[in-house]
Amino acid sequence: MNRYRAGVHVRGLRVSGWKSAVLRLLLGLSAATSLTACTFVRGGIGDEFKSDQLAAIQKGTSTRAEVVAALGAPDRVVAANGREVLHYYRYDIKSSSLFLLLVNFSRTNIKSDDVFVFVNNSGIVDEVVFGKRTAGMEFQVWPFGD
Amino acid sequence: MGTDSLHGIRRCLFAAAAAVLATAIEGCDPFASFSRIALNKPLATQDAAFIQPKTTTFIQVVEQLGPPNELRGTSEGAVAIYYFLDGKQTRINYLAPAQVFQAFIPDLVVNVWGLGVDQLTIWFDDHWVASDYGFAFNANVVQFRLLPARQAED
Fold this sequence. Notes:
By secondary structure, chain A is an alpha+beta fold. Chain A has three helices and seven strands.
């Protein structure tokens, strides 16, 4: 008479005892991590600033009208220190998620590009300040760490 | 009915049960969920240490930190503001594992948000020279937490 013994069969091999428990645990972990789904979401506000648009704005010569012709109407207009400051901005959003059976991980990165054009009382550009934080922004899933 | 047919039916039933189990658990209500949202690169105190009141100019600040997110005019000059945030969410359904065996066990969900909207504000005089600066940090709330209660050392 065959006596029933708990165990796991792997390709003809019979594993029992603590090895069986470890194998079951590994199989369980494998099942928990193999049933996955990923999402990648990309969003943004505003158009990307192109280098030729910015190159067209020359300090000391370009007028407010030329700035508006190159970049469009500013998102904000601020008066500071006797100058008019035209502020253009855009936001880039990259979000990704990993859905496992038991645990979900997601991370969303948002960065902004800003252009400030300083216009003097004569309507001539005094200074242009531009920074591109969105360069090199990556899709990331792991939420821990930096 | 032959043995092979029984095995085949068992396999189909097992596959169907596994599919139901997987779709019941996965995605919608997992055991744990960790999320993070970040706006711009977080700035630390040492990142602004180069700013010397009455010495550092607006252009020098922009060269080091990039353009600000906001610029405002004041009665004495201007204010540049850098925004950054680091939000973290921990969501754990402590009874989700039990629901594998009994579907009618209720949820016990702990959802902890830590949202820190930080900012660096730099004041400039009427010649675009920095006159002062300061941080607003909320980093102490930005932690992944397994329980909603704040820890004693906080």
